[in-house]
Amino acid sequence: MILSAGDVCKSYDSLKVLKGVSLELHKGEICGLIGPNGAGKSTLFRILLGLVSRDSGSLQIHSESSKPLGGIIEKPALYGYLSALENLRVFARIQGLELTKAELENELLQVGLSPDRTDPVRNYSMGMKQRLGLAIALLNDPECVVLDEPFSGLDPIGIRTLQDEIRTLAGSRGIGILISSHNLVELGDLCDRLYVINQGEIIRHGPAREILQQAAKSYLIYGTGLKASKTLASADVEFRTGSALLHLEGPNIHQVLQHLTSEPGITLTACVPQTNLAALFEKTPG
Amino acid sequence: MRNLIRTELFKIFRQRKTFYAIAAVFVLEAFIMVSAYYQGKEFLDVFLDNLRESFEFQGNLLNGNLIIYLVLNAFWFHIPLILMIVVSGFLTSEYKDRTVEAVLLQTVSKRQFILSKYIAALVFTAFILIVLILSTFAFSYLLFGKGDLVVFLDGLSFFDSAEALERLLLAFLVGSITMFFYATVSITLGVLFQEATITWIIAALFLIGTTLVLRLEFDSDLVNLLFFPKLTDNWQYVFFAEIPYGVIVKKNAVLIVYTLVFGVLGMRVFEKRDIT
């Protein structure tokens, strides 16, 4: 385990922002923190990164690296009047790293940025700034990277590119990655484990697949001949052109799919779980 | 720490606003020199007309030394104003762009970061002062030549050209301590208020308040020694007929203590405060 937070509490005056939050992160693991806006994600990350003090609770970082944690909070903060290379050099130098130009260029290439651009980063797109932010976070080889809302402001291609980079960091470099978002789609297929936070409390956590399954209350089934299906006739279903939205509680979707595939005249092409965020963010009784 | 200070200076001199500030100092200097020329003429007319009947003056008294002296008088409000705006911006711009957060996400402690800001602010102030001193002397001597200096402070005093040069240089040196004080206050105000416009307003208010209080006469020697607005014109003692070195040293020592107090206060607040 690289990072472990136990029972962390934080209040701003009378407002309790975090109410006993605990989480842990292992090496090479991608761990997601999902919650609606104002749930306490950024405050928790700021505490983990040492920017904000906690009122109570414990925080343990098991690392021998000189920089155990790297991170980006919300949008990457860069010196807009400097080029990407100069930004990287500034952030390297302040922590005592004297990297050569070739080394700096290599760092840029690793996150998919061209070292040939010498204009100020204020001209860069959000996706490019995120990549540069990631390169800065990775300086000095941290064992764990904390990324707060890294997909915010990115287009779908930008999101996919960043997701691939995150997978590479965890997979090939063994870096533990803690990542937050309020969008389940962005985290769903990226994370190994998920924590769900709402109103300053972790309301559920576990393997990402299980959490997603809990949140999936309906499924969009694509195929032909669905309207004639006997299986769907008795189900709570809305038929659309070329698809059917099946409302279903629990993990029985595989049974429904089995029955559908065995019915003659039906060809299934896809089944997409439709997550119910309201249910996901709802605190379970007890 | 050396790397942090080096980086701070690199950032300062890569920002356009730094060069605007330097240009502003030069423009201001030009204005002050032109007005000093006319002010000097008036000064000589008023103070020396009566004396001309009893004494004979040789050479031109409206010379470079008098211009430098009058420039010195004007500098201690205008230059700190520009300095406070620029120097406080070193920190407030980092709050605005959230780069203070990005820096503290690296292996840099809050103390190291803010200390490097203070040191960079002092180095920048020293740089501005050196540019200012060199250009003032160069332009004044080039345009108005050398000559004896006549000043009216505790009385009318005359200094020959060589002594005038020494006293003017000493005055700049003593006045620099006041500049370092204002630079330190600027960073502290940046820590306290974070937002650029608010910090500028408070910095201007601080400077105006200090200048106004400076003109008030207090009967108490203790107030005159310990109240910081009364310490910001120590350079004037250099032009007393007999330089009161003891008073200058004592008052500057108190001003340095104030500078340290403001610096430590800013550092303590910065270290204690969350970065949100």
UniProtKB/TrEMBL annotation, chain A:
Pfam family, one: ABC_tran
InterPro entries attached to this UniProt entry: AAA+_ATPase, ABC_transporter-like_ATP-bd, ABC_Transporter_VariousFunc, P-loop_NTPase
SUPFAM superfamilies assigned: P-loop containing nucleoside triphosphate hydrolases
Entry keywords, A to Z: ATP-binding, Nucleotide-binding, Transport
Species in which this protein is naturally found: Robiginitalea aurantiaca
Any one Gene Ontology molecular-function term assigned to this protein's record: ATP binding
Domain ABC transporter as annotated: residue spans: 3-224
Nucleotide-binding listed as a keyword: yes
Superkingdom of source: Bacteria
Protein name: ABC transporter ATP-binding protein
Automatic annotation (TrEMBL), chain B:
Record field: transmembrane: 20-38, 66-91, 118-144, 164-185, 197-216, 253-270
Listed name of the protein: ABC transporter permease
Keywords: Membrane, Transmembrane, Transmembrane helix
Gene source species: Robiginitalea aurantiaca
Domain of life: Bacteria
